[in-house]
Amino acid sequence: MTTETGEAAISLNLLPFTRADIEQTVPVRFEQAVRCFPGLVALVGDGQRWTYLDLNRRVNQIAHAIRAFTGPGIGCVAFLLDHSPEMVIATLAVLKAAKVYLAIHPGTPVTAQREIVRDAAPELMLTTAKLESRAREITSGACAVLRLDDIDERYSEADPQVMCKPCDPSTIFYTSGTTGQPKGVLKSHRAVLHRVWLSAQHDAIAPGDRQSLLTYCSFAASESDMFGALLNGATLCVFDIASKGLTSFSAWLDEEQITVLHPPVLLFRRFLSTLEGENLFPSVRLVALAGDMVLSSDVEEWKRHFSKSCSLTHRFSTTETALLTVSRVGPETIPEPGTVLAGRPVADKCLWLIDEAGEIVAAGETGELVVKSSYIADGYWRQPEETAAAFKRDPQAPGQRIYRTGDLGRFSDDGSFEFLGRRDHQVKIRGYRVDTREVDSALLQLDEVDDATTIVQRGPGEDRLLSFVVLKQGFQFKPSALRERLRTYLPEWKIPARFQSISSLPMTLTGKVDKQRLEKAVRDPLTIESSSAETPLTIEQELAEIWRATLRLDTVGYDDNFLDLGGDSISSLISVNMIERRYGIRVPQAELLQHGTIRQLADRIRTNASTQDQTPMTRGSEHGSAEG
To answer: Residues 66, 35: contact at Cβ < 8 Å?
Structure first.
């Protein structure tokens, strides 16, 4: 396709997404996009670009290979890949092979990866040479392992002649269930395409847009970005912010001319805190926030730094139900203090709130959110009893299912929804759903722990996990050791930000852990005693200010470990960015997370300052670029 033809295709939008398009499959819609926009750029990432035609050819090769390695019928094909364009290519290939895709995050602990593989029972595992040993370790010979590197011209680039139906399953997202054990949420092609249709309606995704993909494909949040772009003729731009950092992220937004940005709320909040100036990122026309509560201060900071032509949406969704509500904020909006309402229900989703007796509550009253729709998940993969218990059929509306979300909220007089938290033990931490009992179960597997319970410590715009542990006799309380051992069982976002040793857990009269008593005990602001009695030096003081700001603590010690103070991957990104801006030195995020103390960082800064004329070091420009 010539440039002129491509621009004409964009201006005419040859592929509008109508309601009728919901009743097909993802491969059929993607092939329509390929025929309409063969020469337009479809996928960007890691310095590579694929047109729709080139992408389809590579996807087809992998799809034919999948068919050669699997049996007939609907089955699961998993992949273990880096956060890269390859995960997008693998996703499309699995679907074009008429299989169900399951993405396994490479950062998930091997124990959890094994559990997912055991539960999902995939027919095939896709991976790369880099991750092949881990893929073989977690499959333990239960299925074949195929490297994408080995799929070459032996496999046809033609579209596979295999069909599936709109009602067939397409996707499995593993999430913590009410039992504390992960369960695979199963979605049909129809449900995915309904989500894409909503993207076209609310976000106006169309050819010419450049959509960010910041979330790994194992999380449901990736669904709207990936398919919303590629099934509407837009360009999908992949960026792994965990490995590349916030400084690179800022430059990337401008370099790739991103038009639709979909970041996790907490990440966006901290990204805003690193910005200086107004009317930044002029290409961004829409910021779509989801996964956590949005504060009025977030809106104010967004208005302060982003272009006046940019809009912001606040979405509320769950893995089982997909998108439920949307609210739109314009540059002229003056938000009310507090949290931003999540908006009114989207099309084809019927929402209501019930009390503990199952009765519908009035507007303004708090209740549990219930959803009825034809476009929610079909259930849980290979778990018919759990599916029957969670997804009820509506006898008055064939094809519609009813799902109790476990989310608490209330509706305002104008019908807008306000999210107020979880009804049960499941909570949202950094945008991810976490079951506190899963954390407790992992703690109890540690040799030094006799008993444990986990609560949520509420903070201004951010919730954190706090675990109380009862140690066995003879063991010392070492938070860093607990955290390190938990990484065997839990991904990073499920590891508590703080630990507290306690002689015994308080109990209620009914014999249950008295979490209300524990929560009351930690309501006062936490103060970390300084572990250094020396007179602070200038660099130490400045670093302490950075840590206090990013970790929201009153005091910190020069020998306190960053992780032990509640640091995580996102707060470390902020700290690394602030250190680079202040001292011109790039501290690797992994170094800060694994070994970072203020004293060590100060020594490193002094060493670099005294040897910078003799020894090369990584320095960033005022715009944050770096040379290694």
So the answer is: no
Match domain 538-611 to its CATH number in 3.40.50.620, 1.10.1200.10, 3.30.499.10, 1.10.10.10.
Answer: 1.10.1200.10
CB 40 within 8 A of CB 51: yes
- Is the model more confident about 425 or about 341? 341
φ/ψ of 401, rounded to 5, equals -120, 150
Domain boundaries, the chain: 426-521, 538-611
Instruction: Name the 3-class secondary structure at 467.
Output: strand
How far from 361 is each of 341, 347, 370, 409, 424, CA to CA, in Å? 18, 22, 11, 11, 19
> In the structure, what pLDDT confidence band is assigned to residue 11 with cuts at 50, 70 and 90?
low
Angle 431-437-441 from CA coordinates, rounded to 5°:
120
Record: fold of 426-521: GMP Synthetase; Chain A, domain 3 (3.30.300)
Rg of the chain over all Cα atoms, to the nearest angstrom: 25
CB 190 within 8 A of CB 212: no
Q: Report residue 395 as tokens.
A: 């006898």
CA distance 320 to 1: 40
Q: What is the pLDDT of residue 48?
A: 97
* pLDDT at residue 624 greater than cutoff 70: no
Structure-token pair, residue 421:
């938290």
Tokens 């300052």 correspond to what residue? 609
Examine the pLDDT at 5 and tell me if it is beyond 50: no
Q: Which amino acid is at 156?
A: S
Number of residues assigned to the chain: 628
Q: What is the mean pLDDT of residues 270-290?
A: 92
pTM confidence score: 0.78
Q: Which residue, among 181, 558, 193, 197, has the nearest Cα to 347 in the 3D structure?
A: 197
Say yes or no to pLDDT of 558 above 60: yes
Which sign does the torsion angle of CA 193, 198, 203, 206 carry? positive
**431 contacts 292 by C-beta, under 8 angstroms:** yes
In contact, 234 and 209? CB cutoff 8 Å: yes
Model confidence at 528, in pLDDT bands (50, 70, 90)? very low
Is 370 within 8 Å of 404 (Cβ atoms)? Answer: yes
Q: How many angstroms separate the CA atoms of 527 and 541, rounded?
A: 17
Are 126 and 144 within 8 A, CB to CB?
Answer: no
For the stretch 330-364, pLDDT in tens is 878 887 777 788 999 999 999 999 998 999 999 99
DSSP E strand boundaries for 400-503: 401-411, 417-422, 426-429, 432-435, 449-459, 462-471, 498-501
